[in-house]
Amino acid sequence: MSQKREDYISWDEYFMGVAMLSGMRSKDPNTQVGACIVSEDNKILSMGYNGLPKGCSDDEFPWVREGAPLENKYFYTTHSELNAILNYRGGSLEGAKMYVSLFPCNECAKAIIQAGIKTIVYDSDKYQNTPAVIASKRMLDAAGVRYYQYTHTNREINITL
Ligand SMILES: O=c1[nH]c(=O)n([C@H]2C[C@H](O)[C@@H](COP(=O)(O)O)O2)cc1CO
Ligand SMILES: [Zn+2]
């Protein structure tokens, strides 16, 4: 009798793994964020990571955190969640789920709500005490977007490239 393999990765490991892999494309020296949007029937719809908009050179724009607004990264970077939403060109994201390696900020929360995404699975919540994340949770709660933290399984996945 032939039996199926039992050590395959779970849906959550798969989608959070894809989000983390996407984050590995980020040029941000401090925080790399990845997002993966999934349909209600577990199909990957889109992915994104934090980076500069098209045409803005990774080598010419600043990556530092400090200094004058025009001289640091914050005015220029597109967040992974917004990139994942904007990268989707297939139609509606109504009812979709987002896996993201960092809890979305208030600006991303607005985009998530307006895109019709209904569930967020996040990993790090390192900015939980900042006004941006407190405002984000307030809006997500009001809009009925469910969010829960990813449960680590400590599975290691090695891919030789
Ligand atoms: O939700 C987010 N998604 C996201 O992609 N980011 C990006 C913007 C910046 O490139 C980086 C945050 O940088 P830092 O941790 O150095 O402040 O992560 C930041 C947030 C903030 O929660
Ligand atoms: Zn954001």
UniProtKB/TrEMBL annotation:
The active site is at E81 (proton donor). Residues 10-147 form the CMP/dCMP-type deaminase domain. The keyword Metal-binding applies. Keywords: Hydrolase, Metal-binding, Nucleotide biosynthesis, Zinc. One of its GO terms (biological process) is nucleotide biosynthetic process. GO terms for cellular component: cytoplasm. Its cofactor is Zn(2+). InterPro entries: CMP_dCMP_dom, Cytidine_deaminase-like, dCMP_deaminase, dCMP_deaminase-rel, Deoxycytidylate_deaminase_dom. Zn(2+) binds at H79, C105, C108. GO terms for molecular function: dCMP deaminase activity; zinc ion binding. Pfam families: dCMP_cyt_deam_1 (PF00383). Belongs to the cytidine and deoxycytidylate deaminase family. This is dCMP deaminase family protein.
